[in-house]
What we know:
Elements: H1 8-29, E1 37-38, E2 45-46, H2 48-64, E3 69-72, H3 73-77, E4 90-97, H4 99-103, E5 110-117, E6 120-128, E7 133-138, E8 143-145, E9 148-150, E10 162-164, H5 173-186, E11 192-194, H6 199-207, E12 213-217, H7 221-233, E13 237-239, E14 252-256, H8 259-266
Parallel strand pairs: 3-4, 10-11, 10-12
Antiparallel strand pairs: 1-2, 4-5, 5-6, 6-7, 7-8, 8-9, 12-14, 13-14
The structure holds L-MYO-inositol-1-phosphate.
L-MYO-inositol-1-phosphate binds near residues 97, 98, 169, 198 and 199.
Amino acid sequence: xxxxxxxxxxxxxxxxxxxxxxxxxxxxxxxxxxxxxxxxxxxxxxxxxxxxxxxxxxxxxxxxxxxxxxxxxxxxxxxxxxxxxxxxxxxxxxxxxxxxxxxxxxxxxxxxxxxxxxxxxxxxxxxxxxxxxxxxxxxxxxxxxxxxxxxxxxxxxxxxxxxxxxxxxxxxxxxxxxxxxxxxxxxxxxxxxxxxxxxxxxxxxxxxxxxxxxxxxxxxxxxxxxxxxxxxxxxxxxxxxxxxxxxxxxxxxxxxxxxxxxxxxxxxxxxxxxxxxxx
Length: 279
Ligand code: LIP
């Protein structure tokens, strides 16, 4: 695949049309209360629309790219193929990121899809159809919101930074304790902390300069694949919350407008609970 045999323009064209179709479905369904099932616990939810959107994207892409592979949240949750990333073109999909928001008709949910070729992310799309926010990025070609170029903020000072994060889909007492200890340590040192309820949208907020730092312990590869490319193409950085190199399968992320801010923020995070890797 390193010989440029993947037609990335065609990949972007096809996935963009499928995301439009999926977005229309999500925007229609959110208008009525959605029945849901519980996955790992009573706040880790999935709806029929999550599954329908994931299948719409996978089937649509397989029709055109039969040799491509997929890592999808709902297929993975249903005990599908292990999330092994190879050099083969692989679409990493969260059909509805922010399912809890979707169930409550809280309009901060999105379709998040990224394409990795030779383990490098080439395409990322995060689309919130409720608010008409379509974030797109191609590697080396910049990041865009509804076709307008976006950039991370110029914020260099931690004390003037706005941070966005999530509690995550666990109410395990020890994990909650870790979260609150981190928040207690961070809050006095920054302008504020926000939570949208969707990792992909949180990363998109960093890419458009609306917040300066995003971190989360407990995310999955499908939550962050597209968002990582958006931040990088908008001039930001994505690292591991310990300050080391980002690892998409590690269940942790720290994104910021600059390396200096990311490393300074990483020093404030003192609590990490062990997470089983995605792979
Ligand atoms: C959500 C993530 C969010 C996390 C939530 C949930 P989902 O993804 O985007 O960052 O904190 O617990 O996992 O499950 O709505 O696709």
